[in-house]
Structure formats: structure tokens, C-alpha cells
Amino acid sequence: MTKKDNTNQTKWWKSAVIYQIYPRSFADSNHDGIGDLQGIILKLDYLEKLGIDAIWLSPVCKSPQDDNGYDISDYQDIDPMFGTLTDMEELIAEAGKRHIRIIMDLVLNHSSDEHYWFREARKSRENPYHDYYVWRDGAEGQLPNDMRAAFGGPAWEWVPEVGQYYFHQFSVKQPDLNWENPKLRREIYDMINWWMEKGVGGFRLDVIDQIAKEPDRKITCNGPRLHEFLRELSRETFQKGDLVTVGEAWGATTELAKLYSNPDNSELSMVFQFEHICLDQIPGKEKWDLAPLPFRKLKEVFGRWQRELYGKGWNSLFWNNHDLPRIVSRWGNDNEYRVESAKMLAILLHGMQGTPYIYQGEELGMTNIRCQLEDYRDIETLNLYRERLEKGYEKAEIMDSIYAKSRDNARTPMQWNDGENAGFTDGEPWIRVNPNYQKINAAAQMAEEDSIWKCYQKLIRLRKEYPVFAEGEFQMLLEEDENIFAYTRTDACSQLLVICNFYGSTVEVDLEELESAGELLIGNYKDRKQRRVLGPYEGRMYWRELG
Ligand code: GLC
Ligand code: CA
Questions:
Q1: Distance 119 CA to ligand 1 centre (A)
Q2: What contacts 504, CB < 8 A, 6 or more positions away?
Q3: C-alpha dihedral over 115, 103, 455, 534, to 10 degrees?
Q4: In 3D, which of 219, 307, 212, 318 has the Cα closest to residue 275?
Q5: CA angle at 472 for the pair 469 and 474, rounded to the nearest 5°
Q6: Looking at residue 417, what DSSP letter applies?
Q7: Is residue 87 within 6 Å of ligand 1 at its C-beta?
Q8: How far is residue 480's CA from residue 295's CA, in Å, rounded to a whole number?
Q9: pLDDT digits (tens, 9 = 90+) for 473-528
Q10: How many whole angstroms separate alpha carbon 20 and alpha carbon 362?
């Protein structure tokens, strides 16, 4: 018998591909216009065909939905909008039959203000739950300090009953939890263990780098006790199972990521870091302050993360999630070259080391949406509009930021077919369907030979067939080139070569390695005779055995 390997050396998630579902926009089974758990169950065959290993579900726990479920009022129940606990158990079981694991979204930085803990906490300073949250004394109208909340307004809210302010990094309905309190931490661990017993395959940890806050010193991210808390959390919960865990960490550097994803399994499997995804904004400003993508910087960032985590940590690989605009509209071309650029971006990302995440609809090349302000639903977008109008911005300028970066770009309903409401619901959808669904939808792409969907399906399969995807060492090529993103991945016996034209004009590449690159595993153009010429948004992946 071999000793149980409790480190991250040989974990299943190193050759896995994870699919993110935003439940309210995925599939509606009961005509109320909101996606639900039974809707997901109906689509499991679709996901099995795509070939993914796990589903990360954005929050489905009970919630007043002030921030679409990222404000949880009961961590051990399902929101009626999505179904029941029995539906959740059925989803875990049905997914299991198809070898798909369910990853839940743990929102542990804050709860809803409607959570029992907070309803108690605000009653009096003596209440046993009071200290589950972060309070500061003060007088009404005199805020403890000038910290701001992420969705606008101050980070402090007055509660007359206790004569104190509570701290909230997000909306007023998302009071921050006080991780300094060991009783709170214990309750959280018990809750997680309860979900683990239900057969959950992993967790995504919402804004996890913000839990160890010290508001008096204005510290929210990477607080001094963060890694201590994480190690305790992991020891008390995750380490008892064979889970995948991924932390959302906007403040992660490669150094910190090596702590989070240390192969000794003491914290998490990996983190989502956002260095690459924040590049198209004016440095030091907000995401709404648009700037062109500095392409060479993008390569530098990817290259550094690939190099520094090699053997010392693990990367997550993603272009999209429910907070980000659609990548094909953002860094590809959602017009003339939508198909080519969506595939190129997929090939570019999926050849790297790490665990790739696909956000629902990405496998179809779904695009951003442009609509009237009335059609937006996201609290962040709506607050931004109001704030910037008050500050004197022009309406057109604000709308340009929203078109480019609104979270609702990712939240329009999944486009299943060319029927009414894209096959998402036969009720009234909670948010507008992107009108391009007649052209862009799953049914069409599953039937078509060279669709974006087929490209994703193949990339997922290749990762399973060739060990070099998980283990190969990364080497960036043509670092100074202004159009080409190229790299190799090399293990003891084989090599991958990925070469992508990131832009819309034909380019000639001066790269020796191309001649001996071996067999073309996947590409987005047919019949390429000249290896050294790349068409608009062309992407290719070669493989060869090393002699
Ligand atoms: C994370 C989530 C986002 C949410 C926020 C507050 O960033 O991804 O959707 O609004 O945390 O929970
Ligand atoms: Ca529904």
C-alpha cells in the first residue's frame, strides 16, 4: 500500500478543466425567468459532452440577492429562487454520475445583514453574536474613518440600537465578518464540513484575501493574520477531503500565491489572481478608467506567473468570470473575427500550466451586450452610474465604461438555441438576452464542425491525453514581438509549441522552432501551408516527441 499523498503533488485538479456556472443566468426550469438548480441538472449532459471535470457554482445559498447571492443569509440552505436542499443533493449526485464535481462558492468575508448572526449582532453590544462583525464606536454622522465601500459610499454604517458603526467592504447589506473571533471561525468550519459531507468536490473562496482586516489601520487586503487564518481553515476542513480549493485574491503577487498554493497543501489548491486582467485600465485608477491593453506587458505578466509558480505553487487560468466582461469583446474581435479570435484566446490560455476555468458561454464566444441603462441589473454598475453622474462625468463617457466593463456583460442569459429567449427560459428573463443569440448559440455550435465549442471540447480532451499540459515547463518566445504570443511547454519526453497572432493583420514570424515543431494538435485556420505566416488572430498548438 502506498502512503496517502496529502500534498498537492499529484492532484486530480492538475489535469482538470473547471466550468463556472452563474446559476441565475444558466437555465430556467420553472418559467420564472431565473436560472435554477433543476435547470443545471437538465444541462449536465451538455457539460459532460464538453468534457469538463467540475462545475464552480456561483452562490446558491439563501440570500436577499442584494449582490446576486454574494450576500448569504443562511449558509446551510438553498435560496428558494434556485430550488431546495434536495435539489442540491440531486445535482451533486447527478453530476457525480457523469464524473463531474460540484464546487461551491464560499462567501466568508461577509454575510448578508439578514443573516441570523447579524440580526442578533445589531440588537445590543452584549449579544453573543455582536462580536461576529466588525464594529467601531462613534457618534452618528462621525464616521470612524474615511474608508470607502467597493460598491460606492462609505464603508461604515450606523446602527442606533448599539450606538456603533459596522464595517462593510461591499454594500451596506454585506456586513464584514470578524475573523478575529474564534467562535465565528469555528461556526464557519462546521458549516464547511457539513457541505463536505454532502459530497461537495471543492470550494471557491470569495474575496478571501480580505478576511483578515484591520480597519483602524485601513488594512483590508493581505492583513497580517491572513495566512494564519487560511492554514487553520484548511486544517480544520479542506485537508480532510480530496478537494479543489481556489481563493479569489485581487491582491495576490507571485510571492503570496506561492504561500496560498504551497504544494504542501497547507492553504489552498490555487488562487485567482488578477494581474493580467487589470492591465487595460489606467494604472492606479478604477477599472472604469479605460486604457488600451499593453500587449508586451500582458506577456510579461503571464510569463512571470508561469515561471515563478513552476514547482512551487499552482496557477489558475482564466479570461472570464461573472465579474468580468466577455474576453472576445475585450481582447479579441467580436465582429469580423469573432470565431477566429475566440479560438485563438482559448488556445493561448489552455496551453499554459495551471487549471483552466471556462465561464458559461465562453465556449460559444458569447459577447458583451450594449443596452439602455434601464436594462442593467448589477448593483455595481448602477451605483457607478449614479456616482459618476454626480461627479460631473458625461453620460456618454459613463456608458462607454459600462459597455466595456459592466459585470452584466457576463450575466446575460446563456444562449442555448435560436428559440425564444435563447432557450434560457419560457418566462420573462430577469435580465435581457443578448440579441445576437440567433447567430451565437450552443445548438448551432454543437452541430457545426469547426465551431468555437468544438475547439474548447478538443482543448479539454488534449489536456487529458498529454501529460505535458499539466507538468511541462513554460518558456516564453519572442518576448519583444508586438503581435505574437508564443511559448513552449517542455517535459522529459515531449514539447508543446503554442503560437498565436493576437491581432487582426497577417504577420510573418521569424521563429526557427516552427520548422521542427512537430504535429499540429489544434489550430483555428484550415490548410496552413506556410508555417511562418499567421493570419488574423491565428492560433496553433504543435506537439512533438523529444529524441
Ligand atoms: C467577489 C465576487 C463578486 C461579489 C464580491 C462581493 O468579488 O466575485 O461578484 O460582488 O466578491 O462578495
Ligand atoms: Ca427558475
A1: 22
A2: 333, 336, 337, 536, 537
A3: 70
A4: 318
A5: 105
A6: -
A7: no
A8: 10
A9: 999 999 999 999 999 999 999 999 999 999 999 999 999 999 899 999 999 999 77
A10: 10
Sign of the alpha-carbon dihedral angle for 300, 304, 305, 307: positive
**Residues present in the chain in total:** 547
Q: Give residue 251's identity as a one-letter amino acid code.
A: G
Å from CA of 36 to ligand 2 middle: 5
Q: Answer yes or no: is the C-beta of 211 below 6 A from any ligand 1 atom.
A: no
pLDDT digit string, tens, across residues 443-483: 999 999 999 999 999 999 999 999 999 999 999 999 999 99
Three cell numbers, residue 364: 460559444
User: Bridge-partner residues for 465, per DSSP?
Assistant: none
CA 507 to chain centre: 32
Q: Is 446 helix (H, G, I), strand (E, B) or coil?
A: helix
CA distance 276 to 318: 10
Taking the C-alpha atoms of 79, 117, 205 and 275 in order, what is their torsion angle to the nearest 10 degrees?
A: 110
Q: What angle do CA 396, 373, 289 make, to 5 degrees?
A: 45
Say yes or no: CB of residue 207 within 6 Å of ligand 1: yes
- At position 36, the amino acid (one-letter code) is D
What residues form DSSP beta bridges with 247?
205, 271
Residue with cell 420573462: 428
Q: How far apart are CA 22 and CA 59, in angstroms?
A: 8
**Looking at 430-505, which runs of residues are DSSP E strands?**
473-477, 484-490, 494-501
Count Cβ atoms within 10 A of the Cβ of residue 459 and give its class: 0-12 exposed, 13-18 middle, 19 or more buried: buried
